[in-house]
Amino acid sequence: MLQPGDFVAICGDSITAQRIYSVYMEEYLILCQPAPDLQAQQFGWGGESAPSYLDRMENDVIVFHPNIVTLCYGMNDGRYTPVNPGTLDTYRNAMTSIVEGLKKAGVRNIVVGTPGAVDTNSFKKLDPVVYNNTLKELGNVARDVAEKQGVGFADVHSVMIEAMAKAKAKYGDKYNVAGNDGIHPNRNGHLIMAYAFLKALGCDGDIGTITLDMKDGKAEATAGHKVLAAGKGFVEVESSRYPFCFSGDPAQQESNLGMAEFIPFNNDLNRFNLVVKNPTGKSVKVTWGQSTKTFSAEQAASGINLAAEFPENPFSKPFAEAEARIREKQTLEGVLSKDLLHSTPLWVQSFPDEKETFQKLAAKIVDRAAARRKQSSQLAVLVKYKIVVESL
């Protein structure tokens, strides 16, 4: 689905406006590089439903000319009540019109996402089982719309329900996956959402492979990684392509590291493999950054996923720095789209003699956002590191 130079618009309600899963998506697109020169912009709006997005879509989103649009609506569309056929029909009609409108505007690919899930512990507006059933039915509508329209589909709800059950089984019921209000996830739940959408965008997860032959001391690496030096027990590499980096205490919902255990993020989206050939012993000790781990010779020969085995690694600091820059950028995007661009039709209506002035202002807003996206797309600085391998 992704092509070089694509611009992805990430659209949704207040959950999108939290700028967490949208930041994860953007940093994955820019740093992990499933295709070259990708850009992204978030268009979240608090309290929004599918019909209200439809009303503002042309003025607030299409004007930026994205190639790809992801949609995450339904949480507010369900109205926090049990399943209602009228609610489902309203959602279906709005989502269908949204997809048709985006197609008409020239958007090449669209991903219709389901709503997420409410937390089985912290959601108090209604019995969480009842409202999760409402969200499930809205998700079925989203799937049906995607199939009938021939566009992409992301089943956020099912993945979140399954991961939430597994996480609470390990960390306890108070490990909230959908946040303390039961609706707005923290970093843990947002990782699930990013996973679902990145999978739907067709990301293959092949970050790269570094191969070291301990017999002759030679090494090679795939695209995005350059071998600088190698010997029988080490390889030095310079990388322009990053693995996705996790952080924090895995037992805390403010961390995304713990949730990586309960979804196949690393297997599906984050494979950065070290292959070790011809070790002299039955196992190898690998040191990368400040961490050391031991693996069997069989594991080493088939490939060690460094991204999964070494959460803290030489990419962690530049990854965190890029994340901060992307979050700052997405905060500004909210101002540009919601606070400025959205109101320009009202200004034109109130001051029709200044229509040209406001049209120029709208064009400047679009240009400013494009410039910020361009800056963000260049955040992947080169990372140099050494991997030491010892036979045991």
Automatic annotation (TrEMBL):
<dbReference type="Pfam" id="PF13472">
    <property type="entry name" value="Lipase_GDSL_2"/>
</dbReference>
<protein>
    <submittedName>
        <fullName>LysophospholiPASe L1</fullName>
    </submittedName>
</protein>
<dbReference type="GO" id="GO:0004622">
    <property type="term" value="F:phosphatidylcholine lysophospholipase activity"/>
</dbReference>
<dbReference type="InterPro" id="IPR036514">
    <property type="entry name" value="SGNH_hydro_sf"/>
</dbReference>
<dbReference type="InterPro" id="IPR013830">
    <property type="entry name" value="SGNH_hydro"/>
</dbReference>
<dbReference type="InterPro" id="IPR051532">
    <property type="entry name" value="Ester_Hydrolysis_Enzymes"/>
</dbReference>
<feature type="domain" description="SGNH hydrolase-type esterase">
    <location>
        <begin position="12"/>
        <end position="190"/>
    </location>
</feature>
